[in-house]
Automatic annotation (TrEMBL):
This is Uncharacterized protein. It comes from Rotaria sordida.
């Protein structure tokens, strides 16, 4: 007595009832082993990403290193500016002191000789007033003689930023880019990010 043959909808092969049941069991095992297991592994990886930053720690470390390097460069620039400012202040102080030296000598000479004339007093007073004005301008940091030049050409919103580039239709690669004239002039690859559905 011959058994009825049935076809598999997927592979289109014909089986007897017993072998069709075996075939369906093999497909169920294959589905569990290949599809369900892969799905569960991916889901597990996503949950790990949600629970910790283990995969992104290195990427954040790169950003942190860039920050430290940039801060060091800024501190070095500020230190240079302070050194230059100290030199400029000393130079101006010495210049004012040199202006006062001949007047000091002349005042001593007049006192020693006890020789005072109205013209000398007026002339010396005029010179002292000029020096006093120089000191006041120096102390008040006269805005017409700017000492500190602030370079506001840095775009702090774009000096480091994340940019996604479409690699193919399914994934994007994310990069941290720095401007060409930034303190470190480096690029960092931050990994693959699956686009939102």
């Amino acid at each position: 007595m011959g058994s009825a043959r049935r076809s598999c909808v997927g592979c289109k092969k014909y089986f007897c009832k017993e072998h069709l049941n075996e075939h369906e069991q093999q497909l169920a095992i294959k589905f569990d082993n290949e599809i369900v297991r892969s799905h569960d592994q991916i889901l597990n990886e996503i949950q790990k990403l949600e629970e910790s930053n283990n995969l992104s720690v290195a990427l954040f470390a790169q950003v942190e290193q860039w920050k430290k390097t940039t801060i060091n460069k800024v501190e070095e620039a500020a230190e240079r500016a302070c050194h230059e400012l100290t030199k400029l202040i000393d130079k101006q102080r010495i210049a004012i002191k040199k202006q006062l030296e001949p007047i000091t000598k002349e005042i001593r000479s007049h006192r020693e000789d006890e020789n005072y004339f109205e013209d000398d007093i007026d002339r010396l007073q005029t010179k002292l007033n000029e020096i006093q004005r120089s000191i006041e301008q120096f102390v008040q940091k006269d805005t017409t003689k700017t000492v500190i030049v602030d370079n506001d050409q840095i775009d702090w919103n774009r000096i480091i930023y994340i940019r996604e580039e479409q690699e193919d239709s399914e994934y994007f690669e994310s990069h941290v880019w720095t401007k060409r004239n930034s303190p470190t002039n480096q690029s960092y690859i931050l990994g693959w990010i699956k686009p939102e559905e």
